[in-house]
């Protein structure tokens, strides 16, 4: 049984700040108050190996138990991980560089995500060199995703570069992939702000499995603002949905943006 009080901030279970050469291995974590693990403050050479993180619905009061937040580290390796939670399985925050994730299973989560980025006025957010291989996403609201705030003077500038999702297995729920370029805004007019964000060399390769009936026949929603530079590739994106038809929704995409969708009934177009 856990105690809850709105008067106190919920702590992160394991917090690594400005540390090097850390190994966390062969442990089972259960019911973190909010975030299981966070790596930040320029930490480098951090390894997570053979971990189980469990925040099942019947054991938690809130659905805000996140697996891992990663901010401003370099050279972090995550492998052989099993996560059950109801929020983000993995979040890549500003400053992430050289992140390798291999053999992870996320159940019931909001997915493996970049973001949200660009939320602060005048801020500059970068996420670079992230490699995700062999991820199994079970009953996730999305398997993988990118969340960007809209452009304009009230928000920052974002650069995402060199990111690969390879061998992602989708088992049920909503989108296989989702890119949100106007995250956090309730007004459509706010999404028309000029954006100079850059999302370059992001690859979705050999992604397999099936979504649920939630958005059938849509398996992915890729929303880009009209301005900025975006270079996204979908190759061998073999995701199915219950009806057998497959659609990918896109906004502000044309052939010059390098978006390649193979083995689909519908190719994104502007």
TrEMBL record:
UniProt cross-references to InterPro entries, sorted A to Z: Glyco_hydro_28, Pectin_lyas_fold, Pectin_lyase_fold/virulence
Gene3D superfamilies tied to this protein: Single-stranded right-handed beta-helix, Pectin lyase-like (2.160.20.10)
Active-site positions on this chain: 110
Subcellular location: Secreted
CC per GO annotation: extracellular region
Major subcellular site: secreted
GO molecular function: polygalacturonase activity
Keywords of this entry: Carbohydrate metabolism, Cell wall biogenesis/degradation, Glycoprotein, Glycosidase, Hydrolase, Polysaccharide degradation, Repeat, Secreted, Signal
Coiled-coil residues: none
GO biological process: cell wall organization; polysaccharide catabolic process
Top-level division of the source organism's lineage: Eukaryota
SUPFAM superfamilies attached to this UniProt entry: Pectin lyase-like
Family: Belongs to the glycosyl hydrolase 28 family.
Role played: Pectinolytic enzyme involved in the degradation of xylogalacturonan (xga), a galacturonan backbone heavily substituted with xylose, and which is one important component of the hairy regions of pectin. Activity requires a galacturonic acid backbone substituted with xylose.
PANTHER family: ENDO-XYLOGALACTURONAN HYDROLASE A-RELATED, PTHR31736
Name of this protein: Glycoside hydrolase family 28 protein
